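Hi R.,

As promised on Friday, here is the backbone we talked about, encoded as structure tokens. Could you run it through your design pipeline when you get a chance and send me back a sequence?
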């Protein structure tokens, strides 16, 4: 099944980096694009009007968490994610497999799916490839993700890591076939997920097999778990070689500036991560001059904005001294202001990437971001 109202076209290239337009039933997304993480249907501490003002084009919610609370039937009755949240633009829902498999002591994985005890009340629940699709269809997301098996390296594992990587990849492929067969909503795109751990060979095999099943887009899963930056690039490129040019590509769960530009350079189109908001809540801000530890005592009397080159509402009106004060006393406004800045910084970085690709200057932008990786304000 091919989703209706869903279309992707590449509009410019600079090497392997590309910009494009992703059309969905709820609007067009200019790519490469960052999806702000609204796990429970909300980005923590940031309202929908503020997100729209920051330039958020598309949001991401989590199937598992919304299935737990308030339940997909409740959300469907309130107009799906769009009516429920008040954000009328495109939504993507992660399948929840990563979150469920993190419950190692509460989870059992077999061929049918994942059975687990809810951390909320201990109720036994399950996710299967079919139920994950059914839940996402009720949530009404524009893009749904298949249920996959994310291999997590275990140095103390008795069994071979390579064997575990292959088994997870092969099971993900089997589940991908079941997910594709379970689709019934023609206005919802579904993305397959490439797995294979830290093996370039397995990732090539996974990508080719997932393409054979046939999806509206393809995601790189199971990365950002501690592997070196250079190795991650090799793994992404190995899989990308097997992915069709005419489909969008999504790197799941990475959001540091250098990670974004590295993946854009490899031809990735979509990203999501909690890094901007999580760092903001801890007083760590990404700026055009390096990383700023806003709680530092040396900013007590600093009248400068957090980032003099930023156009966000925080940097337009707030000093470093005031932001430090709010964060130091635990005032929730401090976390909100820092999160707003980090989200705008990230969204603006992808705006700059799109412009640089169109102008043929993306390599210069990548060097600029790399130079700031270890810089501190």
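Update: got your reply. Pasting your designed sequence below so it's all in one thread:
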């Amino acid at each position: 099944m091919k989703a209706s109202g869903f279309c992707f076209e590449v509009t410019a290239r600079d090497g392997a980096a590309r910009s494009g337009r992703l059309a969905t039933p709820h609007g067009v997304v200019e790519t490469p694009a960052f999806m702000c993480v609204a796990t429970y249907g909300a980005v923590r501490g940031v309202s929908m009007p503020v997100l729209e003002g920051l330039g958020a084009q598309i949001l991401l919610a989590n199937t598992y968490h919304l299935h737990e609370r308030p339940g997909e039937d409740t959300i469907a009755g309130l107009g799906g994610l769009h009516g429920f949240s008040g954000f009328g633009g495109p939504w993507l829902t992660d399948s929840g497999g990563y979150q469920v498999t993190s419950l190692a002591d509460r989870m059992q994985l077999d061929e049918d799916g994942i059975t687990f005890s809810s951390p909320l009340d201990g109720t036994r629940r399950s996710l299967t490839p079919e139920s994950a699709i059914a839940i996402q269809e009720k949530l009404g997301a524009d893009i749904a993700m298949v249920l996959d098996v994310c291999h997590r390296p275990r140095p103390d594992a008795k069994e071979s890591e390579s064997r575990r990587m292959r088994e997870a990849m092969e099971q993900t492929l089997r589940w991908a076939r079941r997910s594709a067969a379970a689709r019934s909503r023609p206005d919802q795109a579904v993305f397959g997920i490439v797995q294979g751990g830290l093996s370039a060979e397995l990732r090539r095999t996974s990508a080719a097999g997932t393409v054979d099943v046939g999806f509206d887009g393809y995601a790189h899963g199971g990365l950002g778990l501690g592997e070196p930056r250079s190795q991650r690039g090799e793994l992404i490129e190995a899989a990308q070689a097997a992915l069709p040019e005419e489909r969008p590509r999504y790197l799941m769960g990475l959001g540091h500036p250098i990670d974004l530009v590295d993946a854009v350079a490899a031809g990735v189109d979509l990203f999501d991560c909690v890094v901007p908001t999580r760092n903001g809540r801890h007083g760590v801000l990404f700026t055009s001059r390096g990383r700023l530890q806003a709680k530092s005592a040396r900013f007590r009397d600093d009248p400068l904005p957090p980032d003099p080159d930023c156009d966000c509402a925080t940097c337009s009106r707030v000093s470093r001294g005031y932001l430090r004060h709010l964060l130091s006393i635990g005032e929730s406004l401090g976390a909100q202001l820092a999160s707003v800045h980090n989200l705008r910084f990230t969204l603006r970085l992808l705006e700059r990437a799109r412009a640089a690709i169109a102008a043929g200057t993306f390599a210069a932008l990548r060097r600029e971001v790399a130079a700031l990786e270890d810089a501190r304000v």
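One thing I noticed while checking it: The first helix runs from residue 48 to 54.

Thanks again,
M.
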